Amino acid sequence: MGWSYRKSFGSGPFRINLSKGGISYSVGVKGARVNFGPRGTYVNLSSHGISYRQKISGGPSSQRPAEPQMLPAVSYEQVHNIASADIAQLTDTDSKAFVNELTEKAGKASYVGWFGVLPLIVFLLIMGFTTFSTRKVLLQPATDSIFAQITFYPGVNIRKAASAKSPILKAAVMDEKLPLLDSTNSKWLKVGFKDSIGFIARRFATMNHVHQEQIDSEELYLSNPYAPYELAGGILFFIILIRWLKKLDKSRFEMSLHYEMDDQFKQVYEQFSAHFLNFAGSARIWQYVDARQTNDYKRTGGAGKLINRVAVRSISANQTPLAYFSTNVAIPCLKLSNLEFYFLPERLLVKRDKTFAAVFYKNLRIDGFTTRFIEDENVPRDAKIVDQTWRYVNKHGGPDRRFNNNRQIPVCAYSEYTITSDSGIYEVLTTSKQGAMDAFVGFLEQIGKLQERMAIS
Length: 457
Fold this sequence. Notes:
Layout: E1 7-11, E2 14-19, E3 22-29, E4 32-37, E5 40-47, E6 50-55, E7 80-81, H1 96-107, H2 111-131, E8 132-140, E9 143-150, E10 156-159, E11 168-172, E12 177-182, E13 188-193, E14 196-201, E15 205-212, E16 215-222, H3 227-253, E17 255-257, H4 263-269, H5 272-280, E18 285-293, E19 305-311, E20 314-316, E21 325-327, E22 333-335, E23 340-343, E24 347-352, E25 355-360, E26 364-374, E27 384-390, E28 408-421, E29 426-431, H6 438-454
Helix pairs in contact: 2-3, 5-6
Protein backbone atom coordinates (compact mmCIF):
# COMPACT_ATOMS: atom_id res chain seq x y z
CA MET A 1 0.00 0.00 0.00
CA GLY A 2 1.59 3.33 -1.06
CA TRP A 3 1.37 6.55 0.93
CA SER A 4 1.80 9.86 -0.87
CA TYR A 5 4.21 12.57 0.25
CA ARG A 6 3.89 16.26 -0.53
CA LYS A 7 6.01 19.24 0.33
CA SER A 8 4.30 22.59 0.53
CA PHE A 9 5.21 26.11 1.56
CA GLY A 10 3.51 29.47 1.45
CA SER A 11 2.13 32.32 3.45
CA GLY A 12 -1.38 32.93 4.79
CA PRO A 13 -4.18 31.38 2.74
CA PHE A 14 -1.90 30.91 -0.30
CA ARG A 15 0.30 27.82 -0.67
CA ILE A 16 2.57 26.18 -3.29
CA ASN A 17 2.59 22.35 -3.28
CA LEU A 18 5.37 20.15 -4.70
CA SER A 19 4.51 16.52 -5.40
CA LYS A 20 5.32 13.67 -7.77
CA GLY A 21 2.51 14.84 -10.07
CA GLY A 22 4.00 18.34 -10.46
CA ILE A 23 3.49 21.81 -9.00
CA SER A 24 0.07 22.95 -7.80
CA TYR A 25 -1.30 26.03 -6.09
CA SER A 26 -3.97 26.21 -3.39
CA VAL A 27 -5.90 28.82 -1.51
CA GLY A 28 -8.12 28.55 1.56
CA VAL A 29 -8.00 27.55 5.19
CA LYS A 30 -7.40 24.24 6.95
CA GLY A 31 -10.28 21.90 6.30
CA ALA A 32 -11.46 23.58 3.08
CA ARG A 33 -8.92 24.42 0.39
CA VAL A 34 -9.22 24.66 -3.38
CA ASN A 35 -6.25 23.19 -5.25
CA PHE A 36 -5.23 24.11 -8.84
CA GLY A 37 -2.73 21.74 -10.42
CA PRO A 38 -1.69 19.83 -13.55
CA ARG A 39 -4.33 17.13 -12.99
CA GLY A 40 -7.29 19.49 -12.78
CA THR A 41 -9.10 21.39 -10.08
CA TYR A 42 -9.80 19.62 -6.79
CA VAL A 43 -11.55 20.41 -3.55
CA ASN A 44 -9.68 19.08 -0.52
CA LEU A 45 -11.76 18.36 2.56
CA SER A 46 -9.53 17.44 5.45
CA SER A 47 -9.65 16.97 9.18
CA HIS A 48 -6.78 15.92 11.42
CA GLY A 49 -4.75 14.50 8.52
CA ILE A 50 -7.58 12.77 6.58
CA SER A 51 -7.97 14.32 3.13
CA TYR A 52 -10.68 13.85 0.50
CA ARG A 53 -9.94 15.30 -2.94
CA GLN A 54 -12.73 15.64 -5.49
CA LYS A 55 -12.33 16.97 -9.01
CA ILE A 56 -14.74 19.82 -9.80
CA SER A 57 -16.83 18.78 -12.83
CA GLY A 58 -19.76 21.18 -12.76
CA GLY A 59 -22.40 22.60 -10.49
CA PRO A 60 -24.39 20.55 -8.01
CA SER A 61 -27.31 18.52 -9.23
CA SER A 62 -30.67 20.23 -9.06
CA GLN A 63 -32.41 16.98 -8.15
CA ARG A 64 -33.15 16.78 -4.45
CA PRO A 65 -32.04 13.45 -2.92
CA ALA A 66 -34.67 11.38 -1.22
CA GLU A 67 -34.86 11.78 2.55
CA PRO A 68 -33.50 8.84 4.57
CA GLN A 69 -36.16 6.51 5.90
CA MET A 70 -36.09 4.17 8.85
CA LEU A 71 -36.46 0.45 8.18
CA PRO A 72 -39.96 -0.96 8.71
CA ALA A 73 -40.54 -3.07 11.81
CA VAL A 74 -39.77 -6.75 11.30
CA SER A 75 -42.77 -9.07 11.15
CA TYR A 76 -42.25 -12.80 11.33
CA GLU A 77 -45.85 -13.65 10.54
CA GLN A 78 -44.90 -13.79 6.86
CA VAL A 79 -41.77 -13.93 4.72
CA HIS A 80 -39.34 -11.24 5.90
CA ASN A 81 -37.19 -9.90 3.08
CA ILE A 82 -33.66 -9.10 4.18
CA ALA A 83 -32.59 -6.28 1.89
CA SER A 84 -31.46 -2.68 2.01
CA ALA A 85 -33.75 0.19 1.09
CA ASP A 86 -33.74 1.87 -2.32
CA ILE A 87 -30.23 2.92 -3.31
CA ALA A 88 -31.30 6.58 -3.51
CA GLN A 89 -32.00 6.58 0.23
CA LEU A 90 -28.80 4.99 1.51
CA THR A 91 -26.40 7.93 1.32
CA ASP A 92 -25.78 9.88 4.50
CA THR A 93 -25.57 13.66 4.37
CA ASP A 94 -21.75 13.65 4.58
CA SER A 95 -21.29 11.79 1.26
CA LYS A 96 -23.78 13.33 -1.17
CA ALA A 97 -21.31 15.32 -3.31
CA PHE A 98 -18.96 12.33 -3.59
CA VAL A 99 -21.80 9.95 -4.50
CA ASN A 100 -23.36 12.33 -7.03
CA GLU A 101 -20.11 12.50 -8.99
CA LEU A 102 -19.70 8.72 -8.98
CA THR A 103 -23.29 8.16 -10.15
CA GLU A 104 -22.92 10.80 -12.85
CA LYS A 105 -19.77 9.19 -14.24
CA ALA A 106 -21.24 5.66 -14.05
CA GLY A 107 -24.27 6.79 -16.07
CA LYS A 108 -22.23 8.08 -18.99
CA ALA A 109 -21.91 5.91 -22.09
CA SER A 110 -18.43 4.84 -23.08
CA TYR A 111 -17.13 6.31 -26.35
CA VAL A 112 -14.96 3.22 -26.82
CA GLY A 113 -17.99 0.93 -26.82
CA TRP A 114 -20.31 2.99 -28.99
CA PHE A 115 -17.88 4.60 -31.44
CA GLY A 116 -15.01 2.10 -31.36
CA VAL A 117 -15.93 -1.51 -30.60
CA LEU A 118 -19.41 -1.49 -32.16
CA PRO A 119 -18.26 0.02 -35.50
CA LEU A 120 -15.33 -2.44 -35.50
CA ILE A 121 -17.75 -5.37 -35.22
CA VAL A 122 -19.88 -3.94 -38.05
CA PHE A 123 -16.76 -3.45 -40.19
CA LEU A 124 -15.64 -7.06 -39.66
CA LEU A 125 -19.11 -8.36 -40.53
CA ILE A 126 -19.20 -6.31 -43.75
CA MET A 127 -15.72 -7.53 -44.67
CA GLY A 128 -16.80 -11.11 -44.05
CA PHE A 129 -19.86 -10.83 -46.30
CA THR A 130 -18.13 -8.94 -49.13
CA THR A 131 -14.73 -10.65 -49.17
CA PHE A 132 -15.74 -14.27 -49.66
CA SER A 133 -18.21 -15.93 -52.02
CA THR A 134 -19.16 -19.47 -52.92
CA ARG A 135 -19.18 -21.18 -56.30
CA LYS A 136 -20.02 -24.63 -57.67
CA VAL A 137 -17.20 -26.99 -58.65
CA LEU A 138 -17.81 -30.04 -60.90
CA LEU A 139 -16.41 -33.13 -59.24
CA GLN A 140 -17.85 -35.73 -61.65
CA PRO A 141 -19.88 -35.16 -64.85
CA ALA A 142 -23.04 -37.09 -65.64
CA THR A 143 -22.29 -40.40 -67.41
CA ASP A 144 -24.19 -43.24 -69.12
CA SER A 145 -22.53 -46.64 -68.95
CA ILE A 146 -23.47 -50.08 -70.31
CA PHE A 147 -22.29 -53.20 -68.46
CA ALA A 148 -22.33 -56.85 -69.35
CA GLN A 149 -23.59 -58.80 -66.34
CA ILE A 150 -22.81 -62.54 -66.11
CA THR A 151 -26.02 -64.60 -65.80
CA PHE A 152 -24.62 -68.16 -66.12
CA TYR A 153 -24.38 -69.74 -62.62
CA PRO A 154 -21.15 -71.73 -63.13
CA GLY A 155 -19.49 -68.61 -64.59
CA VAL A 156 -18.03 -67.93 -68.00
CA ASN A 157 -14.59 -67.73 -69.56
CA ILE A 158 -13.33 -64.47 -71.02
CA ARG A 159 -11.49 -65.31 -74.25
CA LYS A 160 -8.89 -63.42 -76.14
CA ALA A 161 -10.88 -63.43 -79.41
CA ALA A 162 -14.54 -63.96 -80.42
CA SER A 163 -14.11 -67.73 -80.76
CA ALA A 164 -14.71 -70.70 -78.48
CA LYS A 165 -11.26 -71.97 -79.42
CA SER A 166 -9.49 -68.69 -78.45
CA PRO A 167 -7.23 -68.76 -75.35
CA ILE A 168 -8.90 -68.02 -72.00
CA LEU A 169 -7.81 -64.76 -70.33
CA LYS A 170 -9.90 -64.95 -67.18
CA ALA A 171 -12.94 -66.62 -65.64
CA ALA A 172 -15.90 -64.36 -64.74
CA VAL A 173 -18.29 -65.37 -61.93
CA MET A 174 -22.05 -65.13 -61.60
CA ASP A 175 -23.43 -61.49 -61.42
CA GLU A 176 -20.05 -59.97 -62.16
CA LYS A 177 -20.31 -56.72 -64.15
CA LEU A 178 -17.86 -55.90 -66.93
CA PRO A 179 -17.73 -52.69 -69.02
CA LEU A 180 -19.31 -53.38 -72.45
CA LEU A 181 -17.13 -52.13 -75.32
CA ASP A 182 -18.93 -53.56 -78.39
CA SER A 183 -22.16 -55.52 -78.92
CA THR A 184 -22.37 -55.64 -82.72
CA ASN A 185 -21.39 -59.31 -82.87
CA SER A 186 -24.51 -61.48 -82.65
CA LYS A 187 -22.73 -64.21 -80.62
CA TRP A 188 -20.01 -62.43 -78.69
CA LEU A 189 -19.77 -59.33 -76.45
CA LYS A 190 -16.58 -57.30 -76.32
CA VAL A 191 -15.81 -56.36 -72.69
CA GLY A 192 -13.01 -54.73 -70.77
CA PHE A 193 -11.44 -55.85 -67.50
CA LYS A 194 -8.54 -54.20 -65.73
CA ASP A 195 -6.22 -53.09 -68.58
CA SER A 196 -7.24 -55.86 -71.00
CA ILE A 197 -9.97 -56.56 -73.58
CA GLY A 198 -11.75 -59.87 -74.00
CA PHE A 199 -14.85 -61.57 -75.33
CA ILE A 200 -17.65 -63.51 -73.61
CA ALA A 201 -20.45 -65.51 -75.22
CA ARG A 202 -23.59 -63.36 -75.52
CA ARG A 203 -25.85 -66.19 -74.22
CA PHE A 204 -24.12 -66.14 -70.83
CA ALA A 205 -24.63 -62.39 -70.10
CA THR A 206 -27.17 -59.53 -70.24
CA MET A 207 -26.60 -55.88 -71.07
CA ASN A 208 -27.53 -53.29 -68.39
CA HIS A 209 -27.67 -49.53 -68.77
CA VAL A 210 -26.43 -47.44 -65.79
CA HIS A 211 -26.87 -43.63 -65.50
CA GLN A 212 -24.46 -41.72 -63.20
CA GLU A 213 -25.72 -38.29 -62.01
CA GLN A 214 -23.45 -35.23 -62.06
CA ILE A 215 -21.70 -34.52 -58.75
CA ASP A 216 -21.12 -30.86 -57.73
CA SER A 217 -19.56 -29.22 -54.69
CA GLU A 218 -19.50 -25.67 -53.31
CA GLU A 219 -16.22 -24.01 -52.45
CA LEU A 220 -15.38 -20.73 -50.73
CA TYR A 221 -13.15 -18.37 -52.64
CA LEU A 222 -11.78 -14.86 -52.25
CA SER A 223 -14.04 -12.66 -54.36
CA ASN A 224 -12.35 -9.38 -53.40
CA PRO A 225 -8.62 -9.52 -54.19
CA TYR A 226 -8.03 -6.27 -52.28
CA ALA A 227 -9.65 -7.56 -49.09
CA PRO A 228 -6.37 -8.26 -47.18
CA TYR A 229 -5.24 -4.67 -47.72
CA GLU A 230 -8.67 -3.28 -46.78
CA LEU A 231 -8.74 -5.44 -43.64
CA ALA A 232 -5.25 -4.39 -42.57
CA GLY A 233 -6.04 -0.73 -43.18
CA GLY A 234 -9.34 -0.98 -41.29
CA ILE A 235 -7.77 -2.72 -38.29
CA LEU A 236 -5.02 -0.08 -38.13
CA PHE A 237 -7.64 2.68 -38.30
CA PHE A 238 -9.70 1.18 -35.48
CA ILE A 239 -6.62 0.62 -33.30
CA ILE A 240 -5.79 4.32 -33.58
CA LEU A 241 -9.46 5.30 -33.11
CA ILE A 242 -9.99 3.14 -30.02
CA ARG A 243 -6.79 4.40 -28.39
CA TRP A 244 -7.95 7.97 -28.98
CA LEU A 245 -11.44 7.18 -27.66
CA LYS A 246 -9.90 5.61 -24.55
CA LYS A 247 -8.12 8.89 -23.85
CA LEU A 248 -11.43 10.72 -24.23
CA ASP A 249 -13.13 8.23 -21.90
CA LYS A 250 -10.35 8.62 -19.37
CA SER A 251 -10.80 12.40 -19.35
CA ARG A 252 -14.57 11.95 -18.93
CA PHE A 253 -14.52 9.17 -16.30
CA GLU A 254 -11.27 9.80 -14.44
CA MET A 255 -11.76 10.31 -10.72
CA SER A 256 -9.02 10.63 -8.14
CA LEU A 257 -9.44 9.87 -4.45
CA HIS A 258 -6.31 10.65 -2.47
CA TYR A 259 -5.74 9.87 1.21
CA GLU A 260 -3.24 11.54 3.56
CA MET A 261 -3.26 10.02 7.05
CA ASP A 262 -1.72 11.24 10.26
CA ASP A 263 0.11 8.85 12.59
CA GLN A 264 -2.96 8.09 14.71
CA PHE A 265 -5.12 7.16 11.74
CA LYS A 266 -2.28 5.33 9.98
CA GLN A 267 -1.71 3.03 12.99
CA VAL A 268 -5.34 2.00 12.92
CA TYR A 269 -5.43 1.62 9.15
CA GLU A 270 -2.31 -0.56 8.88
CA GLN A 271 -4.36 -3.63 9.85
CA PHE A 272 -7.11 -2.87 7.31
CA SER A 273 -6.03 -5.36 4.63
CA ALA A 274 -5.06 -8.06 7.14
CA HIS A 275 -8.47 -7.96 8.82
CA PHE A 276 -10.32 -8.09 5.50
CA LEU A 277 -8.21 -11.00 4.21
CA ASN A 278 -9.03 -12.92 7.39
CA PHE A 279 -12.72 -12.33 6.68
CA ALA A 280 -12.31 -13.30 3.01
CA GLY A 281 -10.49 -16.48 4.08
CA SER A 282 -13.71 -18.04 5.39
CA ALA A 283 -14.53 -21.14 3.32
CA ARG A 284 -18.13 -19.99 2.77
CA ILE A 285 -19.77 -16.57 3.07
CA TRP A 286 -23.52 -16.35 2.60
CA GLN A 287 -25.99 -13.50 2.23
CA TYR A 288 -29.47 -13.90 3.73
CA VAL A 289 -32.25 -13.10 1.26
CA ASP A 290 -35.32 -13.69 3.43
CA ALA A 291 -36.48 -15.49 6.56
CA ARG A 292 -39.78 -16.78 7.89
CA GLN A 293 -40.97 -18.47 11.04
CA THR A 294 -42.34 -22.02 10.88
CA ASN A 295 -44.19 -24.29 13.29
CA ASP A 296 -43.58 -27.43 11.23
CA TYR A 297 -40.68 -28.66 13.35
CA LYS A 298 -41.09 -32.27 12.19
CA ARG A 299 -40.05 -31.62 8.60
CA THR A 300 -37.41 -28.94 9.24
CA GLY A 301 -35.10 -30.85 11.55
CA GLY A 302 -36.44 -28.89 14.53
CA ALA A 303 -35.68 -25.44 13.04
CA GLY A 304 -38.05 -22.64 13.99
CA LYS A 305 -36.91 -20.28 11.25
CA LEU A 306 -36.36 -21.01 7.56
CA ILE A 307 -33.55 -19.00 5.94
CA ASN A 308 -33.22 -18.40 2.22
CA ARG A 309 -29.52 -17.71 1.62
CA VAL A 310 -27.21 -17.32 -1.38
CA ALA A 311 -23.43 -17.42 -1.63
CA VAL A 312 -21.67 -14.08 -1.91
CA ARG A 313 -20.93 -13.47 -5.61
CA SER A 314 -17.29 -12.51 -5.15
CA ILE A 315 -14.89 -11.00 -2.66
CA SER A 316 -11.73 -9.11 -3.59
CA ALA A 317 -8.96 -7.46 -1.59
CA ASN A 318 -8.64 -4.60 -4.09
CA GLN A 319 -11.14 -3.52 -6.74
CA THR A 320 -12.15 -0.07 -7.94
CA PRO A 321 -15.85 0.80 -8.32
CA LEU A 322 -15.39 2.37 -11.77
CA ALA A 323 -12.96 2.29 -14.64
CA TYR A 324 -10.39 5.10 -14.46
CA PHE A 325 -10.97 5.42 -10.70
CA SER A 326 -7.60 5.97 -9.05
CA THR A 327 -6.62 6.01 -5.41
CA ASN A 328 -3.50 5.47 -3.34
CA VAL A 329 -5.02 2.74 -1.12
CA ALA A 330 -6.42 -0.74 -1.69
CA ILE A 331 -10.23 -0.94 -1.81
CA PRO A 332 -11.65 -4.26 -0.55
CA CYS A 333 -14.86 -5.24 -2.37
CA LEU A 334 -17.74 -7.52 -1.43
CA LYS A 335 -20.26 -8.30 -4.19
CA LEU A 336 -23.68 -9.40 -2.95
CA SER A 337 -26.62 -10.56 -5.04
CA ASN A 338 -28.16 -7.08 -5.20
CA LEU A 339 -25.41 -4.70 -4.06
CA GLU A 340 -21.67 -4.18 -4.18
CA PHE A 341 -19.81 -2.98 -1.07
CA TYR A 342 -16.53 -1.06 -1.45
CA PHE A 343 -14.73 -0.42 1.85
CA LEU A 344 -12.92 2.92 1.58
CA PRO A 345 -10.74 4.07 4.49
CA GLU A 346 -13.41 6.47 5.80
CA ARG A 347 -16.73 5.22 4.41
CA LEU A 348 -18.64 2.32 2.91
CA LEU A 349 -19.39 2.83 -0.78
CA VAL A 350 -22.49 1.01 -2.01
CA LYS A 351 -23.22 0.31 -5.70
CA ARG A 352 -26.37 -1.02 -7.34
CA ASP A 353 -26.23 -1.19 -11.14
CA LYS A 354 -24.92 2.29 -12.06
CA THR A 355 -26.09 4.12 -8.95
CA PHE A 356 -23.95 4.76 -5.87
CA ALA A 357 -24.52 5.52 -2.22
CA ALA A 358 -22.07 6.02 0.65
CA VAL A 359 -22.15 5.95 4.44
CA PHE A 360 -19.39 7.04 6.81
CA TYR A 361 -18.35 4.35 9.27
CA LYS A 362 -19.54 6.47 12.17
CA ASN A 363 -23.08 6.02 10.76
CA LEU A 364 -22.71 2.27 10.13
CA ARG A 365 -23.57 -0.49 12.61
CA ILE A 366 -22.43 -4.11 12.34
CA ASP A 367 -23.72 -6.53 14.98
CA GLY A 368 -22.20 -10.01 15.09
CA PHE A 369 -23.01 -13.12 17.09
CA THR A 370 -22.71 -16.92 16.86
CA THR A 371 -25.74 -18.73 15.48
CA ARG A 372 -26.66 -22.41 15.30
CA PHE A 373 -27.51 -23.41 11.74
CA ILE A 374 -28.94 -26.77 10.65
CA GLU A 375 -26.76 -27.44 7.60
CA ASP A 376 -28.52 -29.52 4.92
CA GLU A 377 -25.76 -28.82 2.34
CA ASN A 378 -22.10 -29.83 2.37
CA VAL A 379 -20.39 -28.76 5.58
CA PRO A 380 -17.59 -26.22 4.85
CA ARG A 381 -14.08 -27.30 5.81
CA ASP A 382 -13.68 -24.61 8.48
CA ALA A 383 -17.15 -25.03 10.04
CA LYS A 384 -17.53 -26.22 13.63
CA ILE A 385 -20.17 -28.93 14.13
CA VAL A 386 -21.71 -28.49 17.59
CA ASP A 387 -24.67 -30.86 17.42
CA GLN A 388 -26.68 -33.32 15.31
CA THR A 389 -30.37 -33.46 14.47
CA TRP A 390 -32.61 -35.51 12.17
CA ARG A 391 -34.21 -34.61 8.88
CA TYR A 392 -37.55 -35.53 10.44
CA VAL A 393 -37.78 -35.20 14.22
CA ASN A 394 -40.36 -36.27 16.78
CA LYS A 395 -41.60 -34.12 19.63
CA HIS A 396 -38.73 -35.27 21.84
CA GLY A 397 -36.09 -34.30 19.28
CA GLY A 398 -35.31 -37.87 18.23
CA PRO A 399 -35.78 -39.43 14.77
CA ASP A 400 -39.36 -39.78 13.53
CA ARG A 401 -39.62 -43.50 12.64
CA ARG A 402 -42.55 -42.94 10.26
CA PHE A 403 -40.22 -41.53 7.57
CA ASN A 404 -37.87 -43.67 5.52
CA ASN A 405 -34.28 -42.57 4.88
CA ASN A 406 -34.42 -40.24 7.87
CA ARG A 407 -30.78 -39.14 7.93
CA GLN A 408 -28.87 -37.18 10.53
CA ILE A 409 -28.08 -33.52 9.81
CA PRO A 410 -25.19 -31.59 11.41
CA VAL A 411 -25.80 -28.41 13.38
CA CYS A 412 -22.98 -25.90 12.76
CA ALA A 413 -21.92 -22.84 14.71
CA TYR A 414 -21.65 -19.98 12.20
CA SER A 415 -21.00 -16.26 12.72
CA GLU A 416 -23.84 -13.98 11.65
CA TYR A 417 -23.34 -10.25 10.97
CA THR A 418 -26.13 -7.70 10.51
CA ILE A 419 -25.07 -4.52 8.68
CA THR A 420 -27.42 -1.56 9.19
CA SER A 421 -27.54 2.21 9.02
CA ASP A 422 -30.19 4.83 9.74
CA SER A 423 -30.25 5.67 6.03
CA GLY A 424 -31.58 2.20 5.15
CA ILE A 425 -28.70 -0.27 4.74
CA TYR A 426 -29.82 -3.68 5.94
CA GLU A 427 -27.86 -6.79 4.96
CA VAL A 428 -27.14 -10.03 6.83
CA LEU A 429 -23.97 -12.05 6.18
CA THR A 430 -22.95 -15.39 7.62
CA THR A 431 -19.46 -16.92 7.65
CA SER A 432 -18.70 -20.61 8.07
CA LYS A 433 -15.57 -19.70 10.05
CA GLN A 434 -16.44 -18.48 13.52
CA GLY A 435 -15.43 -14.89 14.13
CA ALA A 436 -14.12 -14.45 10.57
CA MET A 437 -15.36 -10.85 10.38
CA ASP A 438 -14.87 -9.89 14.04
CA ALA A 439 -11.49 -8.18 13.60
CA PHE A 440 -12.65 -6.33 10.48
CA VAL A 441 -15.81 -5.15 12.27
CA GLY A 442 -13.69 -3.98 15.19
CA PHE A 443 -11.48 -2.03 12.78
CA LEU A 444 -14.49 -0.28 11.21
CA GLU A 445 -15.77 0.60 14.69
CA GLN A 446 -12.41 2.20 15.54
CA ILE A 447 -12.56 4.26 12.35
CA GLY A 448 -16.10 5.33 13.27
CA LYS A 449 -15.00 6.39 16.76
CA LEU A 450 -12.13 8.42 15.26
CA GLN A 451 -14.60 10.11 12.94
CA GLU A 452 -16.90 10.93 15.85
CA ARG A 453 -14.00 12.51 17.78
CA MET A 454 -12.81 14.44 14.73
CA ALA A 455 -16.36 15.52 13.84
CA ILE A 456 -15.97 14.73 10.12
CA SER A 457 -18.56 16.54 8.04
